[in-house]
Design brief:
The complex is a heterodimer. By secondary structure, chain A is mainly α. Helix content of chain A is 75%, strand content 3%. In chain B, 76% of the residues lie in helices and 1% in strands. In chain B, a hairpin with a 6-residue loop joins strand 1 and strand 2. Classes of the chains: A mainly alpha, B mainly alpha. Chains A and B meet through helix 2, strand 2, helix 3, helix 4 and helix 5 of A and helix 8, helix 9, helix 17, helix 18 and helix 19 of B.
Chain lengths: 155, 503
């Protein structure tokens, strides 16, 4: 039962949000709540922080009451892994952008996504990656004068 | 007379060649966005906003609004042909639209959808033209307490309608309030929640949140679901897309029902077009002499929700343009676009920027006509957009998202934030937290805090000011009633049934 509670998504989300609410409350109490001119910078965050704590605890408690009656829904773990893998690759491509620039990191991201996340052949992956990267470069900096993140190579 | 003069002035602006071009571009992009499942108008508008910054505000808002209502036209195509709603608001259109297609009436179904969209879209714009000026005049009497109360009511309605769990919707909204607090407090110059990052002193740009929560999260959700559609043959030629006389006759009351229901529901913040289309469908079935035909390919079962989700667009623009109160994610993005152009959406918009207000309204008449003319003969062509493989489309959306954010912030740190908000949006969707309240909390939070603090400055810290003024008190009482409604068993069962039917 304890394991089931610890793995329940509502309980986890409620716990994280309650912690966030406490953090907001702690921060808000460090700033002025009410001054001569009226409410200070801590006034508004104090109240929404308190609301976050109350509602997230309500979410957790409500879930705990229902947990006995309801069985947890099935999670599509392969799908979740695919989505999180895609996000990790995207985040990595952003992290290397200061060195590689947009064009190269985007081409690499596209290649890896097409080849491994979408299971396409090497040629298709390479063609899509190069085509999209060149397309972006031609459309944005050259045609529309919209800047792209540049790397050490200058593009 | 004032309305007619304003409309004539608006047509003078909307009919300028460049504005006609922006309107056409918006309508075409909107139709494509509506057709493609996994890419909604909110994400598309958020991604295109940075590019539209260099445009004249009138042309820019005409184009972005074109995407908004164009997507409603396009959304029906995949509902009818594939039983996959291109848009959340097109879910109800699947029921009878797909059945018509299965019975060999795909062309007629597409035609009915286009005609219903045109009739209701135009009806909605006529009502927008008529009701917006008096509402704006009324709202001119609002001061800070009334604005705070109005924003509270708007957010309460969003929480009520946004998802199965009002608690989760409220938490998402509060998260939006927190994100909007990040940065320097303009009243006291105190840095709040910046984690020592100077890049956060100016706060988080709205577009980073919107693109992350909508576009990036949608890509991740689609990658998880691995959606790839197989397109059946689409009827070609206008003649094959026109419904017969019996089908048109069956739709005549559905068009009226859908238009009125859609507009009225659209005006309510948070209600959204999926709710309006289901209500219109339910009304149509309830008052039909042949309710047994619904779900078997009844033309009126397609016309009613299609009309409703198009009239809803104009309804949703009423509070956004006249009160500065967006009712959903897409209108929140449109509102932010107006703010970023230096305009003030709200009661003063009509006076301060009549070119933008009346130009937009007039362009919607033209846009609806353009969409009808585009959609009937070009449906087979637009449907080809479904053939773009997911492995090309999704990296493209990620690339446009990065370009959009970098174009605004000019910093990789903010692109990193985009990735963070994308993950947050995905996690929220998986855990059943709706995204729209977060966006609305973010957009309205700043104004809400300012209105509350100004109100309390006016009263020397006395909260009584919020209930001593009749309009503010009325709005706050309404907000409280809205929030306690889910506690009333019968209402909550009705609300949950509506949300469940929305899928």
């Amino acid at each position: 039962m304890i394991q089931r509670v610890a793995r329940d998504s509502d309980v986890l989300a409620g716990g994280v949000l309650a912690a966030l609410g406490v953090y907001i409350l702690v921060q808000a109490t460090r700033w002025e709540y009410m001054g001569f001119d009226g409410p200070g910078p801590g006034f508004f965050p104090f109240w929404y922080g308190l609301a976050i704590v109350i509602l997230s605890l309500w979410l957790v408690v409500g879930r705990l009451f229902r947990l006995r009656r309801e069985s947890p829904g099935a999670v599509d773990w392969p799908g979740v892994r695919r989505a999180l893998g895609t996000w990790a690759l995207f985040a990595l491509s952003v992290a290397v952008m200061p060195w590689l620039g947009f064009v190269l990191s985007f081409a690499l991201l596209t290649f890896v996504l097409v080849r491994w996340q979408f299971g396409q052949g090497l040629k298709t992956a390479a063609f899509t990656a190069v085509g999209l990267a060149v397309g972006f470069y031609v459309l944005f900096p050259l045609a529309l004068d919209v800047p792209l993140p540049a790397g050490r190579l200058g593009f | 007379m004032e309305v007619l003069a304003g409309l004539a002035y608006g047509f003078g602006i909307a009919l300028q060649p460049m504005n006609l071009l922006w309107c056409l571009l918006g309508c075409v992009l909107g139709t494509l966005v509506g057709i493609m499942p996994g890419l909604g108008p909110a994400a598309a508008i958020a991604m295109l906003m940075p590019i539209s910054f260099n445009m004249d505000p009138t042309g820019g808002i005409i184009m972005l609004a074109g995407i908004y209502y164009g997507a409603k036209y396009g959304g029906s195509t995949t509902s009818i042909l594939l039983n996959i709603p291109g848009e959340a608001s097109s879910v109800a259109s699947c029921i009878d639209g797909y059945q018509m297609a299965k019975r060999g009436r795909a062309g007629a179904a597409l035609g009915i959808a286009a005609i219903a969209s045109f009739v209701a879209g135009t009806f909605g714009v006529v009502l927008l033209t008529l009701v917006a000026p008096p509402i704006a005049r009324f709202a001119l009497s609002f001061s800070s307490p009334e604005y705070f109360a109005l924003l509270s009511l708007g957010l309460a309605l969003v929480v009520l309608f946004a998802g199965e769990s009002p608690i989760k919707a409220a938490l998402a909204m509060l998260l939006g309030l927190w994100f909007t607090s990040i940065g320097i407090d303009l009243f006291s110059a105190q840095a709040r929640f910046t984690f020592g990052q100077t890049a956060l002193l100016n706060g988080i740009d709205f577009m980073i949140v919107a693109i992350g929560v909508f576009a990036v999260a949608e890509v991740l959700g689609s990658v998880q679901a691995r959606t790839d559609a197989q397109l059946p043959s689409v009827p070609r030629g206008i003649r094959n897309l026109l419904p017969n006389w019996e089908e048109l006759k069956a739709c005549r009351f559905a068009l009226v029902n859908g238009s009125i229901t859609g507009f009225l529901v659209g005006v309510l913040p948070g209600a959204g077009s999926s709710i309006s289309s289901f209500i219109a469908y339910a009304f149509e079935k309830l008052f039909s002499k042949h309710p047994e035909r619904f779900g078997q390919g009844a033309p009126e079962g397609l016309a009613a929700p299609e009309a409703a989700n198009n009239a809803d667009t104009s309804g949703a623009l009423v509070p956004m343009l006249t009160l500065g109160l967006p009712g959903g994610g897409t209108t929140a993005i449109l509102l932010s676009a107006l703010v970023l152009w230096g305009l003030k959406p709200g009661p003063m918009l009509m006076q301060d920027s009549p070119n933008v207000f009346w130009g937009l309204v007039a362009s919607m008449y033209i846009g609806n006509l353009m969409l009808l003319l585009l959609n009937l003969p070009l449906v087979p062509l637009f449907a080809q957009a479904l053939r773009i493989p997911a492995y090309v489309l999704f990296p493209m959306i990620l690339g446009i998202s990065v370009v959009g954010v970098f174009g605004v912030a000019q910093s990789i740190f903010h692109v990193g934030l985009l990735a963070g908000f994308g993950l947050l949006g995905y996690a929220m969707a998986r855990l059943g937290f709706p995204g729209a309240p977060l966006i609305l909390g973010f957009v309205l939070g700043d104004g809400m805090e300012r209105a509350l603090r100004q109100s309390l400055q006016m009263s020397g810290g006395d909260l009584g000011i919020l209930v001593s003024r009749p309009i503010a008190a009325g709005l706050l009482v309404a907000a409280v009633l809205v929030l306690i409604m889910p506690l009333v068993g019968r209402f909550n069962r009705w609300r949950l049934r509506g949300i469940a039917e929305n899928g």
